[in-house]
Amino acid sequence: MMRMNLVLLVGVVLSALYLVHVQYESRHLFSELDRARSLAHKLEVENERLQVEKRAQATSARIEGLAKSRLQMRPANPAITAYVAYTPGAADQGSTANPLIVGRVK
């Protein structure tokens, strides 16, 4: 009878220790889940902010202003536009003058 009580006591103590361990792990995992949710929310807010900033940077007026100021570009108009006519025989005659043409395919 004494052995049976001792085995049951050891079983109860081990069960109690296991229960405490499971509760600790549960709390730990719940706090990690809460941190992950918080981080996901922060990342979502940051993503929305970056999307708004991206849209603001890509406006046509801003791009046109940058093209004028940094690249010294100007709008095309007929006064400064040069039109080039294509002649089919010109590629065969001047192939040695064009450095982009390496060889002819026959």
Brief write-up:
By secondary structure, the chain is mainly α.
Taking all residues together, what is the mean pLDDT? Answer: 85
Which consecutive residue ranges, at least 5 long each, have pLDDT under 50?
98-106
* Strand elements, count: 0
Please state the overall shape, judged from the principal axes of the Cα atoms: rod-shaped
- Helix and strand run: HHH
User: What helical percentage do the residues reach?
Assistant: 55-70%
Measured between the Cα atoms of the first and last residue, the distance is 106 Å
Structural class: mainly alpha
- Gyration radius over CA: 38 Å
Strand content: under 5%
SS summary, helix count: 3
The main β sheet shows up as: none
What would your notes on this structure say?
The chain has 106 residues and is mainly alpha-helical. The protein has 3 helices and no strands. It has helices at residues 2-57, 60-69, 90-93. Keywords: Cell cycle, Cell division, Cell inner membrane, Cell membrane, Membrane, Transmembrane, Transmembrane helix. It is found in: Cell inner membrane; Cell membrane. Part of a complex composed of FtsB, FtsL and FtsQ. It is a single-pass type II membrane protein.
Based on the model shown, name its key terms:
disordered C terminus, mainly alpha, about 110 residues
